[in-house]
Amino acid sequence: MTIPIALTIAGSDSSGGAGIQADLKTFAAFGVYGASVITALTAQNTRGVSAIHQVPADFVTAQIDAVFADLDVKAVKIGMVAQRAVIDAIVAGLERWLPAHVVLDPVMVATSGDRLLAPDAIDALRSSLIPRAEIITPNLPEAAALLDEAMASNETQIENQGRRLLAMGCGAVLIKGGHGQGAQSIDYLISPGGVIALPAPRIATKNTHGTGCSLSSAIAAGLAKGDDLEIAVRNAKSWVTAAIAAADQLGVGHGHGPIDHFHTSGRRP
Question: What fold does the segment set 5-249 form as a domain?
Fold first, then answer.
């Protein structure tokens, strides 16, 4: 039996807490072999992003083709895609290689508040990339930005926004509740079959750097291993909640520190 393979297409986080680095740690934590296509290099740490260097679209294409030509990729996670040309390159790559599972995390703003997605790329995200995703995983501000609406503030508004995002052509929408209020952090999985609320205790910590990247990668890892979508989402939610709960033990950086990707292993590399 060979190891399942997942591919992350995303930006690099030089501090290691989010982006490509978080994705690969997540894949490893789930027992999945991780490959990567880097869309951008960032100079960042737990306090913020100081510089972004975009990878040319033709080199993104070269990375995609190199991976798929040799590796049996079971699932793809897509994260930071800041340029329209890169989105077009990714869409063309998906059409060429037809991976079975695509998880799209529409990364628009970093945990620190830094904007990561150029405004002219949002239309391409909506029209070209979202329709090719099995599931998209926006947080509350990202869901609102994709719809040009105010952020949802209650369950009815969240479900309505989820259904409008679903109408863009993706298979399912997971709207994450980390930016909400109350003792519970509730994610909502919206699909043509209905709405599933996924509550978890809201954890009081500033160390949530890379949470969204890691959740979408955990879903992709589950799909790569053969889980159905609901099981993959439930397992990812449980794992990320525990990783946040363990984050304060790491002591990495002086700002928004990373979650503990290896909280289940009893050791840290």
Answer: UDP-N-acetylmuramoyl-L-alanine:D-glutamate ligase (3.40.1190)
Q: How far apart are CA 50 and CA 155, in angstroms?
A: 36
Catalytic entry in 79, 178, 210, 257? 210
The neighbour count for residue 269, using CB atoms within 10 Å, is 7
Active-site residue identified among 17, 212, 222, 257: 212
Domain locations in the chain as residue ranges: 5-249
Residue type, 23: D
Which of 19, 16, 26, 17 lies closest to 6, judged by CA?
26
Residue 176 falls in the annotated catalytic set: yes
CA gap 77, 71 in Å, rounded: 15
The verdict on whether 213 is a catalytic residue reads: yes
User: Can 212 be counted among the known catalytic residues?
Assistant: yes
pLDDT values of the chain reduced to their tens digit, one per residue, 269 residues: 799 999 999 999 999 999 999 999 999 999 999 999 999 999 999 998 899 899 999 999 999 999 999 999 999 999 989 899 999 999 999 999 999 999 999 987 655 555 667 777 888 999 999 999 999 999 998 999 899 899 998 999 999 999 999 999 999 999 998 666 666 889 999 999 999 999 988 888 998 899 999 999 999 999 999 999 999 999 999 999 999 999 889 999 999 999 999 998 765 54
What is the CB neighbour count within 10 angstroms for residue 255?
A: 17
pTM of the predicted model as reported, rounded to 2 decimal places: 0.95
